[in-house]
């Protein structure tokens, strides 16, 4: 856990977010891939044991990028797509993000049919494999019951700082609205974080949505006032 930089106490919220992004990104860049892989293998059993995960049938998972974040493939992706604890013994349906433009609303979730498909995906400018856009895109959002969320920094209240484009904040608010309109339970949101990404306090704007939980290699943090599944 890192303390916030005391020298930016008077800075605006967006400057504080920028400073924190910069310092955590620099720290992450210094980590070895082998260390990150070993930390991820300590984290996965904690995630896979959560009720929010074992109860899930339709999951959004990010495909990790080279700038360090908890790697999600091949290991986690394979576990999620093949251990099939979903309803009626089905394997989970998995959706991955694709950025379609610069605005916060320009991120869609597309279905992934097999873990092997990832190796054929073109890589975006940030080094993220992304599925090609289908010829016609369904206007409705997928019936996700769990979203595994990437980020730059997290705190123990389950606040999250992303890369500053607002893609996930916007996506999650649309997803919650679409589930509510369809009478579906709100999907659970879980952040995946290396210990190096945990900070004392993430600066938050009104539009920033706290996650239900943050899983690290050492610990699971739950949001205090989180809504339990179905409640
Ligand atoms: N693996 C993964 N996939 C993801 C995300 C993510 O955070 N991780 N995203 C989550 O939104 C979306 C992609 N958004 C991104 C937005 C900006 C940068 C980025 O590196 N931007 C700056 C650096 C900003 C910074 O972090 O300081 C750059 O352009 O250099 C990366 C991903 C969708 N897919
Ligand atoms: N729900 C939303 N709808 C529309 N715009 C939003 C929403 N949430 C955030 N934004 C816009 O996105 C921009 C970036 O927000 P912020 O710095 O919180 O991104 P982030 O959470 O770090 O990034 P990301 O969600 O892409 O990982 C802000 O200028 C904000 O106005």
UniProtKB/TrEMBL annotation:
The GO molecular function terms of this record are: 5-formyltetrahydrofolate cyclo-ligase activity; ATP binding; metal ion binding
What GO CC terms are in its UniProt record? mitochondrion
Q: Where does substrate bind?
A: 63, 69
Question: Do you know which SUPFAM superfamilies this protein is assigned to?
Answer: NagB/RpiA/CoA transferase-like (SSF100950)
UniProt record, GO biological process: folic acid-containing compound biosynthetic process; tetrahydrofolate interconversion
Sites binding ATP sit at 17-21, 160-168
Query: What is the name of the protein in this document?
Result: 5-formyltetrahydrofolate cyclo-ligase
């Amino acid at each position: 856990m890192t303390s916030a930089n005391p020298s930016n106490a008077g800075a605006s919220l967006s400057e504080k977010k920028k400073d924190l992004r910069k310092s955590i990104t620099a720290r992450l860049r210094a980590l070895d891939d082998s260390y990150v892989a070993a930390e991820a293998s300590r984290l996965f059993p904690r995630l896979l044991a959560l009720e929010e995960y074992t109860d899930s049938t339709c999951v959004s998972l990010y495909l990790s990028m080279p700038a360090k974040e908890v790697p999600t493939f091949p290991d986690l992706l394979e576990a999620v797509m093949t251990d099939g604890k979903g309803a009626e013994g089905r394997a989970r349906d998995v959706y991955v993000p694709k950025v379609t433009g610069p605005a916060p609303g320009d991120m869609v979730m597309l279905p992934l049919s097999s873990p092997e498909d990832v190796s054929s995906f073109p890589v975006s400018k940030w080094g993220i494999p992304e599925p090609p856009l289908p010829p016609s895109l369904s206007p409705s959002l997928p019936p996700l019951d769990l979203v595994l969320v990437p980020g730059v920094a997290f705190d123990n209240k389950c606040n999250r700082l992303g890369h500053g484009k607002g893609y996930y904040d916007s996506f999650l608010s649309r997803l919650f609205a679409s589930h509510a309109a369809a009478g579906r339970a709100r999907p659970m949101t879980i952040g995946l974080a290396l210990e190096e990404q945990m900070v004392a306090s993430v600066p938050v704007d009104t539009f920033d949505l706290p996650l239900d939980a943050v899983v690290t290699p050492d610990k699971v943090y739950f949001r205090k006032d989180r809504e339990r599944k179905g409640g």
